[in-house]
TrEMBL record:
<dbReference type="Pfam" id="PF10728">
    <property type="entry name" value="DUF2520"/>
</dbReference>
<dbReference type="InterPro" id="IPR018931">
    <property type="entry name" value="DUF2520"/>
</dbReference>
<dbReference type="GO" id="GO:0016491">
    <property type="term" value="F:oxidoreductase activity"/>
</dbReference>
<feature type="domain" description="Pyrroline-5-carboxylate reductase catalytic N-terminal">
    <location>
        <begin position="2"/>
        <end position="89"/>
    </location>
</feature>
<dbReference type="InterPro" id="IPR036291">
    <property type="entry name" value="NAD(P)-bd_dom_sf"/>
</dbReference>
<keyword id="KW-0560">Oxidoreductase</keyword>
<dbReference type="Pfam" id="PF03807">
    <property type="entry name" value="F420_oxidored"/>
</dbReference>
<feature type="domain" description="DUF2520">
    <location>
        <begin position="126"/>
        <end position="252"/>
    </location>
</feature>
<dbReference type="InterPro" id="IPR028939">
    <property type="entry name" value="P5C_Rdtase_cat_N"/>
</dbReference>
<dbReference type="InterPro" id="IPR008927">
    <property type="entry name" value="6-PGluconate_DH-like_C_sf"/>
</dbReference>
<protein>
    <submittedName>
        <fullName>DUF2520 domain-containing protein</fullName>
    </submittedName>
</protein>
<dbReference type="InterPro" id="IPR037108">
    <property type="entry name" value="TM1727-like_C_sf"/>
</dbReference>
């Protein structure tokens, strides 16, 4: 396929690199030309600085920008691309944000966390596709199959639910790791000592129902330990961490009827 991308961030970068192995990346557009040029040089594409310069002789245009920018971008796509399938990559943006302005629209959402310096296992990354037209769904499904072994035809409402759940499973859990590091750093304790525990916890959560795997002082209803931990955080001046600790402990106790 002949594919162009709007965006040069983490999602756009990983998609462009992977797609370029089997498809022709034609153009890369970014708000800053230097960013577009950097990514374009990796995938043998042309960097452009204006949407008006988009080549209409492409099969697919991928909008990989921030959620709040998608509507503005689709309204700025030249009318010459009316027959081109245009998709966004957002987990939390409804398909109708595109279909309001462009009939041949779809969603191509990879459920994964992306960092510039981290390799992505595309074979195991779930890909969610949705389109306005049935013919376009077949095209996107074929493209998705060239990247991943896990393809799903989900609605915008289902995808939004997954995106919300992903914030808990990924973003919030990572912030918990951040808070854990703050705690041990205060006493010059090696954070890497927690790695085996973190890995085992993740493994258990993927192999069992997380509610059954819950452990810890809140699960046991050990008020002495809970109070001691919060006092330690307050004495260290970590009032915010103490508040988070208290809220999470209360929710665990409520979930397991230990209040």
């Amino acid at each position: 396929m002949r594919i162009s991308l709007i965006g040069s961030g983490r999602v756009a970068t990983h998609l462009a690199r992977k797609l370029s192995q089997q498809h022709d990346i034609v153009q890369i557009y970014a708000r800053h030309l230097t960013y577009a040029e950097s990514l374009a040089s990796e995938v043998n594409a042309q960097a452009i600085e204006q949407l008006e310069h988009l080549d209409p002789k492409i099969d697919l245009l991928i909008i990989a920008v921030s959620d709040q920018a998608i509507s503005q971008v689709i309204q700025s796509v030249p009318s010459e691309l009316a027959e081109v399938l245009i998709v966004h990559t957002s987990g939390s943006t409804h398909l109708n944000v595109l279909t309001e302005y462009h009939q041949k629209s779809g969603v191509f959402y990879p459920l994964q966390t992306f960092s510039f310096d981290r390799h992505v296992d595309w074979n195991t990354t779930p890909l969610f596709v949705e389109t306005e037209l049935d013919d376009d769904l077949a095209i996107l499904t074929t493209l998705a199959n060239s990247l991943s072994n896990r393809i799903y035809h989900y609605t915008s409402a289902q995808r939004l639910t997954l995106h919300l759940a992903a914030v808990f499973a990924c973003n919030f859990s990572n912030y918990c790791y951040d808070m854990a590091k703050q705690v041990v750093d205060a006493q010059h304790v090696d954070f890497s000592l927690l790695y085996p525990l973190m890995i085992e916890t993740a493994h258990k959560a993927t192999q069992n129902d997380p509610v059954v795997m819950q452990t810890g002082p809140a699960m046991r209803g050990d008020l002495n330990i809970l109070n001691m931990h919060q006092n330690m955080l307050e004495q260290q001046g970590s009032v915010d961490l103490s508040d988070v600790y208290g809220l999470l402990s209360q929710q665990i106790q409520k979930k397991h009827s230990l209040e």
